[in-house]
Amino acid sequence: MTQRTHFDDFARGRIIGRLECGRTQLEVSDELGIAQSVISRLWQQFQDDGYVSRRYSTGRPRVTTPNEDRYLAVTAKRNRRNTASDLSRQLSSATGTTISRQTVYRRLGQIGLYARRPVRCVPLTATHCRVRLAWSRERALWTPQQWACVMYSDESSLWALEMMKLSNQSPDIAVVKCKAAE
Fold first, then answer.
1. Where is the Transposase Tc1-like domain (predicted)?
2. pTM, to two decimals
């Protein structure tokens, strides 16, 4: 099967111009070395539509219009907890356009909105709260010299590892290790 070559608008105009001058499709075909079926198809398109420029047609047509895409974006920004299925239902009820959950993901992704799960922390039990309160009350009146021997770290993995070691000793006690200043 041979690969099609597309004519530019100038070549299409030349073909239509010759046909409008009264030449037959066969004559134009012979002059330009183009198949008569192509000439016929161009002439038919010109008579139907009034123009012969190539139609933009790459891929499947979009289900949503730009206005519907904006509606999705505004709705998603207003109600950040809505799921893609919720947004799909809202669009369907507002405009009558039914789209899939995956289409909502794609449309929101095109404008930079992506689904993210909120960070969940470990829920504190009543025992945790009591131990934390006792710890803070013990240290409420500490002097700067006492705090100087405490090392702080924002690395939660180290803290979790240390707490696991300490939990083996006693589940109700959280110990802060203090190295004396030398």
1. 69-139
2. 0.39
